[in-house]
């Protein structure tokens, strides 16, 4: 739509004189239900803009939750690519209209409570707290350098075992308080900010512990001890620290689905006076039980509006919710809509679904703050809940960051209002939400569905009534007209800007319609009238944002996602040597790191390990206390410290300790690590390779485990393949060499078992593991294998715009599985259906969860390369068909389905970086066997296949660049198959 620009110099008198602001005698009225057809009429009445409501109706905007390993790799981004890290900080937290106003930190206990483990700040009661182990505290410190008003909150889910043991006895309040207090004060000392909110209760409870909430609040306000040496607070700073500490607010109760704390606050005056903010998870609705006016009828609405017997308003949060699922730039190719149409940026679990959650949770339960779990996905893909974020940050060695288009959708709420927390004098100008001009009729309470075409809109207004913005979400396949009337407002220029985000039209680039100004309109007969396009979000605002650089700025590009291939230091990218990655845990190659401090007023330079609480590089912990420490010789080694005294059985995802490192694209490599057992009570050390998904040590496809008695066991995943013993020792060197289907395990340099896997896992990372004893690891090294391609260079999703399809396909994104790449798949069982993929390299792997029923004809660069090629049964993220042995250059491969069902998730392109000699004897044998058939004696189709295979074999023998052992074997096999398929012309006519 063409933008119509109008002058901004005209004046417009208010529609009516202002009136005194007062709460209505009854509950704030929501708009009446709108008719299914016809325009949606909205009245934005200045008398409904409640400037005196400073808690419940102020729009706090958005927050993020750091927990469960979701932020683990961020500190590596900061160290390896500081320019990208600080750019991320500015994008999410900076500017006049910050996207994120709050960092919520779920305190870790070294156990897996979702996608992984966050470190415990205190592993024993005697250990001084160390907040720097937990990346969320430092993320908040860095965010405060661009937004000092950023809020920080903490809560717990599980707790360290020394607290848990006492808590299970029915005591433990003092231990819990000590853990919280010492962590809070350590963060205060290190970073210069005091936590703003604490939820003393457990995360996602269904039965709020109201007595402990009261006990904890009393303990905070009556605490006078800030001089203990453990706190490290200088004398001159103790008074200031005490004042800040006593001002900590209470949030309750982070329930999941249940709505119990709201009625409790309304019925318990003491609890009401203690709790400052209420929040619950994964549900947009209020509670509606009993008669109107009862404590169980719309309790959260009454808390937010102040229409309760205490005549006070409270903050109401959507205190944990999802971000969009998958990549929006991929899901626009889905067929989830009616008749197999695309839902664009919409559909269930999409960016528009997320926008509707914000709108509906406000319209139905007056929640003015939404916290993403997570906003940043900085953990390795393949863990539970992968690809459920706004920003993906998983390759710190490359600096690659993916900013999802859902960020533009969220900016429709944050860039057209002043968001945040109102100050004590009510002069910050935080915009108020307007209940009477907000409504949502979309279906669902968690994964909401706007396909019914019902109106969904939310209005925010300047408390001075000089401007307002109405955000409209249309996640249906129908156009929807809105008519907005402003009354009792003090608007100046009546021009309204229309900002829109939606998917591309046919022939457009993916990002053609992301958050852009599409129109400027003025009222006609008192109404602003605008028709909202299908599958879109628009913000209709009286603000002048057309020339605002922050509003018009595009998100940063992703950057190249280079594979992890370093020199022997593990830091410098180097594809020329034999090392893929190495870590001796000394980190002499690492420089100092900049850290936000003094409450965001400055940054300070800190040594690498000190800045990150001694956390190792590039490791994502699934369970366990993994930390760099000194051995008996004073050298740095990696320890897993969680022993029998710290063992926690309250974790949601219970596993023995394990951590993951590396690149999911690694294929053929040898991993080596030194292990030792300093715990006299016992121990077990695990080394695994080709881990692609999962959160246990046994999720590495091939792993060897050894104990101090010399007993070793070799596993394929969790299945025992072989056992044996070596001489008992205090330390061992473990290694696994994975080349194709051949896997060899080593102890102290000696091969103890070789396994030929009939259905091998082709790619994946390295895992280290232990049992619940202190265990040491050192000199981790991952090396290339002569004659084998070490990795794939790129992964491309089946939804990528570069993939071309013909025939009948179902391309699904809604309700996608986290184990599918980007939560999307493309599926067909129609004979003749095909897809073509461009790539650069020597081959590709087709990835997806399959039964092995699919049979293809395969073409490369227009030439036949395989007929009736079978696939193998494969798990999600597994390889169902591997193509190798192509020249190392750009190609296009086409797969034509002959029979069966193919689930195509993604493909990887194989590197041509191959070191060492490759045995081509099999190719020579196949050429000799084929001889020199006469072209005219055979049918054209069979000859074309044979000629293509023979030409490839001859080229390989002339010294084909990038040829590896697996490629040579495939070339020989394809020639043998093509020779067997040669069909004489006379055979077809007889």
UniProtKB/TrEMBL annotation:
SUPFAM superfamilies: (Trans)glycosidases (SSF51445). Residues 1-24 form the signal peptide. InterPro entries: Aldolase_TIM, GH, GH59_C, GH59_cat, Glyco_hydro_59. The keyword Coiled coil does not apply. It is an enzyme of class 3 (hydrolase). Its EC number is 3.2.1.46. Residues 621-784 form the Glycosyl hydrolase family 59 C-terminal lectin domain. Residues 107-134 are annotated as: Disordered. Residues 59-415 form the Glycosyl hydrolase family 59 catalytic domain. Belongs to the glycosyl hydrolase 59 family. This is galactosylceramidase. It comes from Streptomyces salinarius.
């Amino acid at each position: 739509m063409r933008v119509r620009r109008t002058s901004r110099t005209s004046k417009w008198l208010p529609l009516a004189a202002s009136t005194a602001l007062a709460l209505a005698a009854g509950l704030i009225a929501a708009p009446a239900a709108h008719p299914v057809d016809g325009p949606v009429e909205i009245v934005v009445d200045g008398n409904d803009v409640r400037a005196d409501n400073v808690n419940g109706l102020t729009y706090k905007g958005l927050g993020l939750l750091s927990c469960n390993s979701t932020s683990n790799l961020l500190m590596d981004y900061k160290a390896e690519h500081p320019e990208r890290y600080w750019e991320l900080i500015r994008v999410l937290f900076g500017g006049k209209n910050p996207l994120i106003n709050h960092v919520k930190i779920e305190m870790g206990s070294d156990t897996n409570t979702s996608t992984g483990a966050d470190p415990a700040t205190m592993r024993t009661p005697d250990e001084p707290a160390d907040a720097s182990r937990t990346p969320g505290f430092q993320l908040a410190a860095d965010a405060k350098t661009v937004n000092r008003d950023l809020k920080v909150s903490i809560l717990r889910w599980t707790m360290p075992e020394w607290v848990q043991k006492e808590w299970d006895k029915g005591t433990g309040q003092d231990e819990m308080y000590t853990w919280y207090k010492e962590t809070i004060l350590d963060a205060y000392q290190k970073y210069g900010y005091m936590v703003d909110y604490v939820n003393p209760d457990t995360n996602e409870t269904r039965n709020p512990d109201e007595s402990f909430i009261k006990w904890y609040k009393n303990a905070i306000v009556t605490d006078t001890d800030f001089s203990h040496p453990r706190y490290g607070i200088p004398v001159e700073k103790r008074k200031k620290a005490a004042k800040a500490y006593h001002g900590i607010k209470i949030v309750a109760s982070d329930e999941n689905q249940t709505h119990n704390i709201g009625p409790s606050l309304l019925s318990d005056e003491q609890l009401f006076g203690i709790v400052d903010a209420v929040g619950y998870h994964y549900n947009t609705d209020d509670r509606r039980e009993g008669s109107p006016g009862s404590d169980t009828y719309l309790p959260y609405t009454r808390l937010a509006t102040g229409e309760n017997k205490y005549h006070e308003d409270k903050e109401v949060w959507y205190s944990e919710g999802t971000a969009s699922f998958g990549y929006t730039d991929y899901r626009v190719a889905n067929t989830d809509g009616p008749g197999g149409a695309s839902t664009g940026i919409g559909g269930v679990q999409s960016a528009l679904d997320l926008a509707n959650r914000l709108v509906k949770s406000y319209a139905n339960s007056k929640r003015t703050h939404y916290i993403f779990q997570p906003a940043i996905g900085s953990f390795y893909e393949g863990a539970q809940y992968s690809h459920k974020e706004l920003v993906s940050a998983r390759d710190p060695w490359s600096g690659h960051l993916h900013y999802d288009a859902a960020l533009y959708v969220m900016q429709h709420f944050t860039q057209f209002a002043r968001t945040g927390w109102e100050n004590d004098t009510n002069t910050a100008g935080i915009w108020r939400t307007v209940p009477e001009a907000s409504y949502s009729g979309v279906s669902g309470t968690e994964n909401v569905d706007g396909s019914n075409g019902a109106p969904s809109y939310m209005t925010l207004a300047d408390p001075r009534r000089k401007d307002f913005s109405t955000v409209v979400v249309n996640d249906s396949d129908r156009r929807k007209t809105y008519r907005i009337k402003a009354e009792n407002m003090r608007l100046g220029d009546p021009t309204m800007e229309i900002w829109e985000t939606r998917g591309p039209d046919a022939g457009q680039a993916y990002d053609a319609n992301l958050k852009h100004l599409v129109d400027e309109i003025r009222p006609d007969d008192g109404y602003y009238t605008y028709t909202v396009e299908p599958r879109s979000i628009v913000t209709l605002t009286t603000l002048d944002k057309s020339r605002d650089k922050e509003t018009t700025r595009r998100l940063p590009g992703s950057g190249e996602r280079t594979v992890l291939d370093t020199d022997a230091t593990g830091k410098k990218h180097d594809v020329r040597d034999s090392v893929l990655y190495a870590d001796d845990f000394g980190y002499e190659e690492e420089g100092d790191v900049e850290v936000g401090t003094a409450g965001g007023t400055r940054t300070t330079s800190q040594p690498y390990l000190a800045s990150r609480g001694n956390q190792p590089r590039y490791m994502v912990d699934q369970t366990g206390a993994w930390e760099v420490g000194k051995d008996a010789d004073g050298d740095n080694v990696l320890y897993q410290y969680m022993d029998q005294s710290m063992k926690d059985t309250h974790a949601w995802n219970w596993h023995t300790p394990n951590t993951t490192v590396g690149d999911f694209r690694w294929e053929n490599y040898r991993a080596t690590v030194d292990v030792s057992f300093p715990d006299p009570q016992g121990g077990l050390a695990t080394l695994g390779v080709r881990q692609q998904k999962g959160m246990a040590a046994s999720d590495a496809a091939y792993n060897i485990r050894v104990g101090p008695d010399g007993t070793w066991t070799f596993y394929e995943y969790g299945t025992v393949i072989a056992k044996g013993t070596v001489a008992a020792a205090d330390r061992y060197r473990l290694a696994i060499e994975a080349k194709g289907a051949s896997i060899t395990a080593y102890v102290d340099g000696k091969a103890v078992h070789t396994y030929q896997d009939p259905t091998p896992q082709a790619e994946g990372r390295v895992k280290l593991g232990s049992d619940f004893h202190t265990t040491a690891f050192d000199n981790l090294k991952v090396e290339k294998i002569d004659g084998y391609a070490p990795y794939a260079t790129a992964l491309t999703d089946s939804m990528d715009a570069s993939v071309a399809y013909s025939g009948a396909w179902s391309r699904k994104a809604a309700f996608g599985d986290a184990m599918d790449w980007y939560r999307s798949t493309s599926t067909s069982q129609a004979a003749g259906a095909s897809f073509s993929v461009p790539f650069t390299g020597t081959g590709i792997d087709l990835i997806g969860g399959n039964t092995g029923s699919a049979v293809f004809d395969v073409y490369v660069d227009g030439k036949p390369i395989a007929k009736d090629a079978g696939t193998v049964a494969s798990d999600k993220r597994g390889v169902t068909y591997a193509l190798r042995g192509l020249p190392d250059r750009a190609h296009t491969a086409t797969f034509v389905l002959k029979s069966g069902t193919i689930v195509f998730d993604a493909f990887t392109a194989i590197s041509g970086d191959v070191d060492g000699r490759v045995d081509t004897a099999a190719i020579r044998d196949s050429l000799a066997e084929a001889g020199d058939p006469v072209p005219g004696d055979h049918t054209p189709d069979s000859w074309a296949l044979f000629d293509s295979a023979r030409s490839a074999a001859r080229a390989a023998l002339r010294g084909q660049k990038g040829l590896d052992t697996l490629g040579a074997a495939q070339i020989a096999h394809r020639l043998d198959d093509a020779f067997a398929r040669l069909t004489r012309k006379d055979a077809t006519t007889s």
